[in-house]
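Q: What would this chain look like folded?
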Amino acid sequence: MEAPFKEKVFITGINGFTGKYLEKHLTGKGFQVYGSTLDETNVSNHFKCDILSENALFDVLNKVKPNYVIHLAAISFVASKNQENIYTVNVFGTINLLNAIEKLDYSLNKILIASSATVYGNVEGELNETMCPRPVNHYGNSKLVMENMIKPYFDTLNIIISRPFNYTGVGQEPHFLVPKIVSHYKLGKEKIELGNIDVLREFNDVNFVVKTYTELMLSNTCSEIVNVCSGNAISINTILSAMSNITGNTIKIEINPKFVRPNEIKILKGCTKKMTNIIGDVTDNFKIEDTLKKMYQS
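A: My prediction, written as structure tokens:
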């Protein structure tokens, strides 16, 4: 008797921070998971493939024949030195992917493309999808350009665009804020240089994000842009206090003017209404203290 058919998911950037969690989550759900990576790989379900090559993408997708594609591959660090590369990868890499998908001789169930909440820019308060985006850095602007270039494909492909707010977890690169803070406590440092520690932002758990991506992928919704957020904004000071409670240690905070952004807004968080209307409320199980504890103990 043949094994039951398993639906296939293809993840671009499968070796990245989010991709690793997403592969584990989807595999646990019973999907066959494949993906692309820039690096050489000996993992049978991972393929070395540069998203700047439409032909390479087509060849891999035509071989795997996935039912779903989740597009994570991107230049994701806001302070990346190579600004031109941010646009090349984030915009043209995405266009290459969609062009390759259009050449396939069958229709995919859904394509989820990860954009970013940085498209909103420095806007005070609770941000919803009807607001006019006003990005203030090249990363955010590249994601907005990407969104605009995707929209013409809404007519031919089942696409949903996600705008994740800040998230973190074990394995995130150390140049990001929360891993930087956690590493200072792990290494027993006496002081840390930070920017404004009183601003409130979302710091969600990567497991919340991959769970949300999965539910959005499986939903009937397409041709929409959806915030991936908890609506829970906390201050960096709160993270520092939580780390002190976890470790029993206190670190001296030094405010470095280089890290303080001009005209920085007090509170920035996402509106969850559209997301929860589509997939229900999946935010309840994730708390920043639990995330920080796992990061510290890893």
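The mean pLDDT is 94.
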